[in-house]
Amino acid sequence: MGTTIAGYAIDREVGEGGTSAVYEAHHAEHGRVALKVLRERLRQDPTAVARFIREAKFGARVEHGNVVRTIETGEAEGGIPFLAIEWAAGELLERYAKTKGHLDPAEASVITVQIAAAVDAAHCQNIVHRDLKPDNVMYDPQTRTVKLLDFGIATDTNTPADERLTRAGFFVGTLMYVAPEALSGELVTPAADQYSLATIAYFLLTGCHPYTAKQPREMFTQLLTMPPIPLSQANEDLQFRPEVEEVVMRGLSRQPKDRYPSVMEFAVELERTLALPVEEKGKLSRLLRRFSRQPDRKR
After folding, report:
1. Spatial separation of the C-alpha atoms in residues 167 and 154, rounded to whole Å
2. 4-86 — its CATH code?
3. Which of 92, 95, 154, 215 is least surrounded by Cβ atoms within 10 Å, i.e. has the fewest?
4. pTM above threshold 0.70
5. Is 140 a known active-site residue?
6. Which is catalytic among the residues 45, 104, 120, 131?
């Protein structure tokens, strides 16, 4: 804190991951920004540096109102790779959704459609994000605005096999949100992002995930061999129209060919079917359970 990197004065650390740290900083010309800096231990790792540079390039290629804008990237004095991006208002969607428990259908729909629009812009540039999850989405509840982050493990579907940074047989992504076909480590298609977005929508609507595994090995097995838990069974206090469940579960199809033709078609259809609010049935269910436990009383 209090130091300056490439003209960006660091105010505070706002996030950290395995490869980099993110700071709130300010710049005389660019104002308030988010500054991402590669960790010192990885600065001599060619693959880590290549991924960092690739994130910057992919982010700059995807220009959309729901994608954080790339301002500048480079190497500061001392050999410090950095990436400056626009400061996105709000908080991480993961934190917001967990605080809420589950979101109402209208809000979940607004968020899903905006993420889809951001991802569709990436797909138009032949870029598959590969790590869609609430932790990579900034959300401002005041304006209901979404900003997609982190193209760190994105891939260009036109990249020749010998130039890819992921070896065959190794998958990248987050198990809770990754598409089953990605587990092989092969190059995935935009359909993999649709699966991840369907998982996000499922989580926003129910507060739960489509699989209940607690350990990575168990999660691998469930993803490859078991169907996801139906949306209507995820949260006993919520019920959904059959049309809503059909859309979400189609997005979660194990085979990419069984999903919607595009991520936007999935989001638009979900928006249409979520036109009616989620029915809260928790109070009635709890009331019925309470009376069913009471002993019979003699009159």
Report:
1. 14
2. 3.30.200.20
3. 215
4. yes
5. no
6. 131
